[in-house]
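Let's do one together. I've listed all components of the complex below, 504 residues spread over two lines.
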Amino acid sequence: MAAMRVTVLAGAESAPFVRELASLLPAHDLTVVASVARDQWVHGLKRTPDADALLDGLRAEPSSATSRVAEELAALGAEPRWAHDDDATLARQVLRTELLAAGFGLAEVTAALAARLALPATVVPVSEHRTELHVVVTDAGERRAVHVEEHLATGTAEAESLVVVSTDDSASDAALAAVRDADVVVLAPVRPTVTRTPLLRAGGLRDALAARPAPLLAAPEADDPLAALADPLELPVTTVGSPADVAAAVGA
Amino acid sequence: MAAMRVTVLAGAESAPFVRELASLLPAHDLTVVASVARDQWVHGLKRTPDADALLDGLRAEPSSATSRVAEELAALGAEPRWAHDDDATLARQVLRTELLAAGFGLAEVTAALAARLALPATVVPVSEHRTELHVVVTDAGERRAVHVEEHLATGTAEAESLVVVSTDDSASDAALAAVRDADVVVLAPVRPTVTRTPLLRAGGLRDALAARPAPLLAAPEADDPLAALADPLELPVTTVGSPADVAAAVGA
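Okay, and this is what the predicted structure of the assembly comes out as:
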């Protein structure tokens, strides 16, 4: 049987699902489209929590989750305190930032990191551009927009609405190609607001999904404290329960 | 007795001496002027090995010397491999780089790090500017200049001469003031080429030392693989053997 091209739309919370799926499809081409809604610059470094969790989840051996640098930054009084990444993630932030500064795009950099880790899947960001999810809260009588990472980490006042802050909201060529050229597209377990909503707002992605002849294979939603603010999915789906269901659909 | 102002000229190799001296002079004002000759930018981060070793040495409790981020960078194939800093140092590099990018000078940033660590001494860089020591080597028939850090870490071909690569070779105001205003100036145990030579080439520093009425208190030289290339000291000195000798001279 020819290798099938399988594309998975995912966020950090999808990492266990994606890891298991990769183990079930060793003979197929797996591409993971990662949300960038939680990305941000902290301490001059580019954080990409979704892509990083997916890269980590796909490694043969998980990296040990020490956070020595984050502890030292806290000892130095560096803000924000809630940006507490583990050391392996911080190393990728350093290298990613260096490569971005050298002029490479986020998709190239993410692909380079995946290649250097010899992962069994390609990981591509849904956008090449800064496209960050903020939530609007009313805090001490004042309305303000807070980055979703800060909101999730510190539990600010209740989120009233979403704002996507973007320099260019188009989907990356790599993500659009991964959806267009795939034999099967899977929506991994994702938080409907934190991950799915900004992912499907990436310009061109929803149209590319709607243009496909076969429905999306959709896994159950992940828990989301912001679920009430999600965009409706409004795409034809076939429900799948587990990575094994996807493997069966692929014929693996 | 009034507090005396004691200034120490130092490099990374002086850290144990400076630590002991600080413990002997708790009631006096201690300022450490750190060489910047080994500074460089690696992975987009500002390394300052001399200031960092001195900051570390002055801490109440030494930080544990894990190198998780450096190990992960090596696993990612990041070059140069020889820039293998421990995690606490890397955290300071991240914060230093962030503050430099925000427009603060190296002296302000170094003072801020020392203050946040509640150190018993002030640490000031001898220069605010990029002033890096290179050595000239002949490698496979070709002469080239190599950063002293690379030379020391990888043992390139034999060093033939020194080149200080500088955007502005003047000493920092903080270093000049520390020498001018001190009651006692000490030359800590330093490598004569790697540390002392570029330190005393910082514009204005040698004149400020020569203008002092009392001689420099000079500790024994540290071992230096490049000793043959050192500038002569050519300053009047009184030899001291240990931090206790300095404390006796200060009257502590």
